[in-house]
Design a protein that fits this description.
- Helix 2 runs antiparallel to helix 3, helix 2 packs antiparallel against helix 12 and helix 5 runs antiparallel to helix 6.
- By secondary structure, this protein is α+β, with helices and mostly antiparallel strands.
- Strand 10 and strand 11 form a beta hairpin.
- The strands form 6 sheets. It has a 6-stranded mixed beta sheet with strand order 2-11-10-5-6-7, with no helix packed on it. A 6-stranded mixed beta sheet has the order 13-22-21-16-17-18, with no helix packed on it. The protein has a 3-stranded antiparallel beta sheet with strand order 3-9-8, with no helix packed on it.
- The termini are far apart.
- The protein contains 16 helices and 22 strands.
- Among the domains are: 115 residues, Sandwich (Immunoglobulin-like), CATH 2.60.40.10; 114 residues, Sandwich (Immunoglobulin-like), CATH 2.60.40.10; 96 residues, no CATH class.
- 55% of the residues lie in helices and 16% in strands.
């Protein structure tokens, strides 16, 4: 009886001292790259002495971690878990043997066994890491080929039940990654795209909710060739895929642009030759109108199509606007402008002024658009101020254009004409300083805006001051002197203006291109101011300069455009560079040449008059010599032996010279040589007269 009681008490004691090891109620699902807790615990505290806890990976029997003799034993860990698996050591004495596994990878998926040992008992539980969540970003397995000008699709699919917070497309084979398009916080952010891809890259918006973030790239260009990466992020998850745009073929649009450039050069050469041959005929004026219009309109379409397939927006707009308005500049410089219908002085003044106003409007509209794209970073007051300033500039320009068109169409006096004329004159003086102030504030260079305060009086002095009264009437200057002074003053002002443009736009990537455009604008402005000061256009060498402008400039620009297309297709990158740096400097050279002819006209005409007088004098001298030679020839026909007698007398004089010199030396005369020569000369004349008689 006692024995049975003892055995029963022992079993109760064992049951009371026993423990059950528990784990998680369900498999563990853990995100990729984060930490996971593998739960393992008992429902009561266990003594530390004699306690041992072992975590093992069941499929490979790898030792994950060990706790023994009151401490962790990291040396026993398998290498893949070193510094990644940790116990909560301060909670082990309370029966918590859970394991913290950091930086979970896809290879950590599987079963883990937690075994707990004491001196008398042991227990275990099994924990499963069922799956490791991650963003699976997939794309195309092969490179893409396309023709330039076509639209292409770069595939990118994000496979996850988590909506990505951000998906970006970048071109990664450049020195710095170029952002093509960005999806962020459920919105497509277009203004952050690089200028090269702005308005050409887009997502398929209807497919985004399905995880389709493929990129549609319109009107592919040669510089688009390269490697593109689609990168997605969602919380702690991220993933990416790459797509290569490998080959770009020469498209039909390329061939069209090349053909148009050849047509522009050919038409300029052919029409100029015909015009030169027919200068003094009734068709000269018609041919001249063809010369100034046909090649330039063809080049307008060449730059337009180039902009569609290759060019950047700022270049395309500036070059197209210039070639569309360029016939006005050529008409101003045309040799036969006196044959134009209407009042010649009014037409010549208005057409170049009209070109300046229209071209300035286009350029500043493009600059205002560039400001508006970055205006999200501006204060509201600055945005309103810059917008109002731009509106004033456009309003003044429109009034100026209306006045000039009215002058060209119907040149009559009246109150409306007087108002328009007044506003036009004021706008002519105020616009350049207003433009500079606009640039300084719009492009974050307001610290230099005070510089304009010094430029403004310079413009007023130059444009409003009557040079003819000051120089010719008051100072009694020569015409050449006042024109030379005007030229120096004009050069200084234009250099200051171009430098101001550089200061205002120095942070822009295409600052050099804008500087070229600014220089051309200043040359046009100089021509407009010139027409207020000098009206004489009876220019020497005008046909030569005109042919350079109508043919040479077109040839240079068409060749540059063709070289850019061909080399860019071959090399995959820009070869010639910003075409504005070729188009506008060449145009400045032409316009400045005509401008210099106008200013230096007195010098050139004086030199021409001197050369003409010299030529006439030489012609008269040659005519007189020919007449004398004819008279001598007639005389020789009448006395055939005169020449021989004259030669004989001359020989005798040479024989007499030593005798005469000896006589003078004996007489003690000091100037014997001169007197001897004088006597010889007199004797020679006498003998010659006797001979002729």
């Amino acid at each position: 009886m006692y024995l049975h009681s003892c055995m029963f008490m022992s079993v109760l004691l064992m049951i009371s001292e026993g423990f059950i090891v528990k784990g998680p109620a369900a498999p563990v699902v853990v995100p990729l790259g984060v930490s996971a807790i593998l739960t393992c615990f008992v429902d009561k505290s266990l003594p530390i002495e004699g306690l041992k806890v072992v975590w093992i990976r069941t499929d490979s029997n790898s030792l994950v971690h060990v706790f023994q003799d009151g401490m962790s034993v990291p040396d026993a860990q398998y290498q893949d878990y070193h510094d990644r698996a940790h116990f909560f050591t301060d909670k082990i004495q309370h029966g918590n043997f859970s394991l913290l596994l950091n930086n979970v990878t896809a290879e950590d998926k599987g079963f883990y066994r937690c075994k707990v040992y004491t001196d008398h008992e042991s227990g275990e539980t099994l924990v499963e890491i069922k799956s490791v969540e991650r963003l699976i970003v997939s794309g195309s397995d092969h490179s893409i080929s396309a023709y330039v000008g076509n639209d292409i699709t770069l595939n990118c699919s994000v496979d996850s039940h988590i909506t990505p917070e951000e998906v970006s497309w970048k071109k990664t084979d450049t020195y710095e990654d170029i952002l093509v398009l960005l999806f962020q916080k459920s919105r497509i952010i277009t203004h952050s795209s690089h200028e090269q891809y702005r308005d050409r890259a887009e997502f398929f918006t209807d497919e985004i909710h399905k995880g389709n973030f493929s990129l549609r790239l319109k009107s592919v260009r040669t510089e688009d060739q390269g490697v593109y990466m689609c990168h997605a992020e969602a919380g702690n998850f991220s993933g990416n895929t790459t797509v290569e745009l490998a080959q770009l073929g020469f498209s039909a649009l390329h061939a069209m642009v090349l053909s148009i450039c050849i047509a522009a050069s050919g038409s300029a050469l052919l029409l100029s030759v015909l015009w030169y041959l027919k200068q003094n005929t009734n068709t000269a004026l018609f041919l001249q109108l063809l010369v100034v219009s046909v090649p330039n309109l063809i080049m307008f379409f060449a730059f337009l199509f180039w902009g569609v397939i290759e060019g950047f927006q700022n270049e395309t707009v500036a070059c197209c606007a210039h070639y569309f308005l360029r016939p006005l500049l050529l008409l101003w410089a045309a040799p036969h402008s006196e044959h134009f219908p209407g009042e010649r002085k009014t037409i010549i003044h208005c057409i170049v002024h009209l070109q300046y106003s229209l071209f300035a409007n286009v350029i500043y509209s493009v600059l205002f658009r560039a400001f508006w794209q970055k205006s999200v970073n501006y204060a509201e007051f600055d945005k309103v101020l810059i917008t109002v300033l731009f509106g004033i500039m456009i309003l003044i320009s429109i009034i100026n254009i209306i006045f000039l068109l009215a002058e060209l169409i119907r040149n009559k006096d009246g109150p409306m004409r007087a108002v328009l004329d007044f506003v036009s004159d004021i706008g002519h003086d105020v616009l350049p300083p207003l433009q500079l102030i606009f640039l300084f504030y719009a492009f974050k260079a307001a610290s230099h805006a005070l510089f304009v305060v010094g430029v403004f009086p310079l413009f007023l002095t130059l444009t409003r001051y009557n040079w003819n009264d000051a120089c010719e009437k008051k100072l009694e200057c020569l015409q050449s002197v006042r024109r030379l002074a005007w030229l120096i003053f004009m050069i200084v002002v234009n250099v200051i203006m171009v430098y101001s443009y550089l200061m205002a736009l120095e942070k822009e990537k295409d600052c050099a291109g804008w500087a070229s455009v600014a220089a051309f604008l200043q040359v046009l402005w100089g021509i407009v101011v010139l027409k207020h000061s000098f009206d004489d256009l009876d220019l020497p060498y005008r046909p030569v300069v005109y042919l350079f402008g109508s043919v040479g400039v077109v040839l240079v620009n068409s060749v540059a455009l063709m070289a850019e297309l061909i080399l860019k297709t071959v090399n995959g990158e820009r070869a010639v560079g910003d075409l504005r740096n070729i188009v506008f400097p060449s145009e400045c050279l032409f316009a400045s040449s005509v401008l210099f002819l106008v200013i230096l006209e007195p010098f050139i005409k004086d030199n021409q008059q001197c050369c003409q007088n010299s030529a006439e004098s030489n012609q008269a001298s040659r005519s007189h010599q020919n007449h004398c030679s004819q008279d001598n020839a007639d005389a020789s026909d009448e006395t055939p032996f005169t020449g021989s007698h004259q030669n004989q007398s001359t020989a005798e004089l040479h024989e007499m010279r030593p005798l005469l010199r000896t006589q003078y030396q004996e007489a003690g005369r000091s100037e014997e040589t001169e007197e001897t020569d004088s006597v010889v000369a007199q004797t020679s004349s006498a003998l010659t007269g006797n001979t002729l008689s």
